[in-house]
Write a structure and sequence with these properties.
two-stranded antiparallel sheet
Length: 190
């Protein structure tokens, strides 16, 4: 009788060990896959350097890609100026964390002198405010504003952990791109 009990215990422990090994192995393969994909995606001009800074953004990006979805920006500006009072800036290497790097950018691009550092966010990125923003939330030199002001908000903002200001007139919507819908319909008709 004792031999039978030992066999039963050994048999019950055996599958869990294999399941654990399988899970660890799968996780390691997934992380390798994620690293390769992140390197490729970070070379895309519109998404450069993003995934080096936000793991949750990378996972969200891949979740959308798997579902064949994308993010679009909807709405319009309400002119509140909230986006000008607390923003992060980036250069070719990603979002700014160093005041020294910001000073170097000002030397090569004097138009960035309009931004002043106000602190850091929870991830350590520098926070800025634009000195051209009036108390009413309008721009002192609207016709001379930078491209980053003209393009705000970009659809890549959620991938870097960025959020829209409270009461912003814009919103992000997850949609199926039209070309995906068209391809699906053409396949269905064949």
């Amino acid at each position: 009788m004792p031999a039978m009990i030992l066999r039963r215990q050994a048999a019950s422990k055996l599958p869990w060990r294999y399941i654990f090994i399988f899970m660890v192995n799968t996780l390691l393969h997934f992380l390798d896959f994620l690293t390769v994909i992140m390197k490729k995606v970070s070379k895309v001009r519109g998404l450069r350097g993003i995934f080096a800074f936000s793991l949750s953004g990378a996972l969200y990006y891949f979740w959308l890609k798997i579902r064949r979805k994308t993010i679009v920006v909807r709405g319009r500006c309400r002119g509140c100026g909230s986006c000008c009072m607390e923003l992060c800036l980036e250069n070719k290497d990603g979002w700014l964390r160093s005041e020294t790097v910001f000073r170097e950018i000002i030397i090569t691009h004097p138009e960035y002198n309009r931004f002043e550092i106000t602190g850091r966010d929870s991830t350590g990125f520098l926070l800025f405010k634009c000195t051209w923003c009036t108390p009413q939330g309008t721009c002192l030199h609207y016709s001379k504003r930078l491209d980053l002001c003209k393009k705000f908000p970009e659809s890549s903002l959620p991938f870097v952990g960025g959020k829209l200001p409270v009461n912003c007139g814009y919103s992000f919507e997850v949609v199926t791109p039209f070309d995906n819908i068209l391809k699906k319909e053409l396949k269905r008709k064949k």
